[in-house]
Structure prediction request, 392 residues.
Amino acid sequence: MTPRSARAGFLAAALVLCLGVGFEVHALWTRSASSVTPPPSAPLSAADALQNAFVQVAEHVRPAVVNLGTVQMSRATRRPVVPGPFADDPVFKDFFDQFFGRRGQGPSEEFRQSGLGSGVIFDKRGYVLTNFHVIRGADAVIVRLSSKQEFRGRIVGTDSKTDLAVVQFVPEGTLTVAALANSDAVRVGEWAIAIGNPFGLDQTVTVGVVSATARADVGIATYENFIQTDASINPGNSGGPLVNLRGEVIGLITAIVAAGQGIGFAIPANMVKRVTAQLVDRGKVTRGWLGVSVQPLSRDLSESLGLGEPRGAVVARVYPDSPAAAAGLAQNDVVVGFDGTPVEDYHHLQRLSADADVGRSVKLDFVRKKERKTITLKIAEAPDTGAVAPSR
Prediction:
């Protein structure tokens, strides 16, 4: 057989094999198709139910989300037009003129800078929850509802150490109020819905999941215990709610990682409850204080002290005339328990002491030179709450 005839025979055999396989597959598909029943409708119903859940949450919570416009004043030789998306809004301009006076008054004019952020109504008396950094330095706050109504707001109180603030306005009717969830029950993997005004785009809804809980060492605030989410968050979302599928606020959106994608942080609702209750009552936050600065417990130090896992907080400094100094706590002591609660790390100890009532007596368990000890001390008031005077 010549090479050419051999190749021809091989191709013919391959063609027959392919055709045979094709005929068999076609026959098998035909037989299978005639015997397979249509898929059940359950998956479609489940998808519809999930979609409806998102829609219902958005419809329920969005009316409680507000747009916050802030104004800062400074002296200048001339005054430019108001920047931002409110520049052409006559209502907004009239508000400026009524609150600050009209242009051309005095030898120099007021320069007005506007900022934008989000907030969520949590009380029918017109109390709005937002971030401290949203209203920081503001001379005026404008609250815009989902109905487009605008009200002048006043700053009730702020807390820079958690980046929280409360603003109040006088409503003209009944308000939609968002409910705060028990954030301690939030689990990684749960659905998370972010609602806010990114880049001034009112009432934007994005969806993701809870990526992590109890995030600290982020560098945003003094007291950090953030919920992390991959729901899309952008500038202007700050102060808006992070919501679960029950329509409850699990956290208040506060920051994103600019260098990454899908990494946003929200202040957990339970921390929000504690702080806002004090801001509404007295305009500032009073925190408990042990009188120590603490640092992380390394694995090497933990093993050298016979503690096993590195759980606890190392005392870096004891302040004079503090509760810790009076009780005999010393530098390099490792605090492992706070009034019966095991201390996970130094952030945990900071939160436990800050949340403790001033004047309360607590027991501290600590390790010194491999020896476990217990002392009792009385919680004092933290010398600096970081509050900003409310506006009237």
Q: What stands out?
A: The chain has a mean pLDDT of 81. The longest helix spans residues 3-35. The chain has eight helices and 21 strands.
